[in-house]
Sequence to fold (389 residues):
Amino acid sequence: MKERYKTYLKLNLISIFFIAVSFISISLAWFAYSGLVRTQTEIDVKAWHIEFNKSGEAVSNNVVISLSDIQPGMNSTYEKINIKNYGDSDAKISYKIEEVRILNEDLSIPFEFGSIEDKLANDYPFSINVSLNKKYLDAKTGEAVLNIGVAWPLDSDTDEEDSYWGNLAYEYQQTNPNAPSIKISIVIKAEQNTDNYKYNSGDVFLYDAVNNVKCDKLGNTCIKTHILNTNVSEGDELFLLPDLYDTYQSGTFNDYNTLLTNTWTVDNRDLKLNDILNLVSQDIDNTYLIRNNLSDRIIGYIEYNNRFNNYLNNIIKPYNSYIKYDTTKYSFLSSNNCYWINTEYNETQAFALVKDQNKGNIITPYDKTNICGVVPVIVLPKSILINEN
Fold:
């Protein structure tokens, strides 16, 4: 009887153990991976726990944004999903816009990544922007924010479009009082990072540009740079912007190419407006195009195909515009000195990053006769990131 009791007890304990594991698996997804182990039978088990949070409340990875009242001059509306990696492994975050409806227009058809983002941000008098500020999250501590913003400036010099879409929105709201004017469904995907690198745009990267090698301690020829790429994918080159300080060569814009010459052995090139604009436009809360006598405009998504050139020639240049961004988020683009950007505004002006007492750092048309520094952009093969972590 004792032996049978022990047997039952053992079986019951095993059952309880598996029940406990099943309960744990409801709140945490577990996966096993083979690592560098001492014996062939040793397996490490890591916890996989990604949390999605909106306004302090846990939410699912399926995000639905509904907006009923849209009109010119509306207050910009934002929905933010905070993503935290509490697990034991590095994570890669991505999103996909699965459904879009604007009034009676259904855009729920297959789009390649970037095309639907471009359309929503640029093809209407209002702009709808989706931005994920980080793609790679470190284990246990990594955090990212998915931000969805809707803005409709009061005066954007598109009066006919404003009137057309404003009337459409009003009519739709009258005939469909219980239906949102705009509905967007987004799925956020979190997976174990298998890319062998985990850098996000703006991250620090130490490099010795004179000896053309990666380094790990500032000093001598080892300098601090920041990654300019907004999406480092397989096969891409890596673009690094060195810290802005006052030891670079300075001169007029007409001397740009001469000033770019340096003692570096690493490949490098000039700094262009789209390098910085693609980066700072990811902040869809605080990066604005400021135009004379018009409403401020969120820049938003301009990376798809030839959109930047269209934006430069038709939106920025005709209005004597400048770009204002949050230097607390982009501290490496903050300086008391001015720096030329090798993009011309007109015959007498080119764009420059300058310090303005009232506006902080801005990117603005600047007279070519001014004296500003020139900072080269380092160009590296992306393979330098592989297996270096």
